[in-house]
């Protein structure tokens, strides 16, 4: 992939959320919307999404394979197994209702406890595939 194509992809991804919100949907369906972005742009858009989500309070289904991203952005995390697909965890994030700045969450004991629990479930599930 050349640099021009990568930049086009990043610009397209960065502009997708405002374009989607302009249509005022009741539910946002986002399937790995930040997966193709570099780390700096990804963090910026995560912060923008977090702010917009808190302001507009849209129901959003956000699919990601990035646990850190899920922990930062989610009000609720549903973790699925690989195969057969089943729910491994369904966690309502205890810090979702308050207005803690997104990047400050990573130091909270609740965040660390949930992250460790989900990582352990992911490891167990991955080991079953080997």
From TrEMBL:
Gene3D superfamilies, alphabetized: P-loop containing nucleotide triphosphate hydrolases
InterPro entries the UniProt entry points to: ABC_transporter_ATP-bind (IPR050166), P-loop_NTPase (IPR027417)
Highest rank taxon of the organism: Bacteria
Keywords, in A-Z order: Transport
Family membership: Belongs to the ABC transporter superfamily.
Protein name per its UniProtKB record: ABC transporter domain-containing protein
Annotated source species: Acidihalobacter ferrooxydans
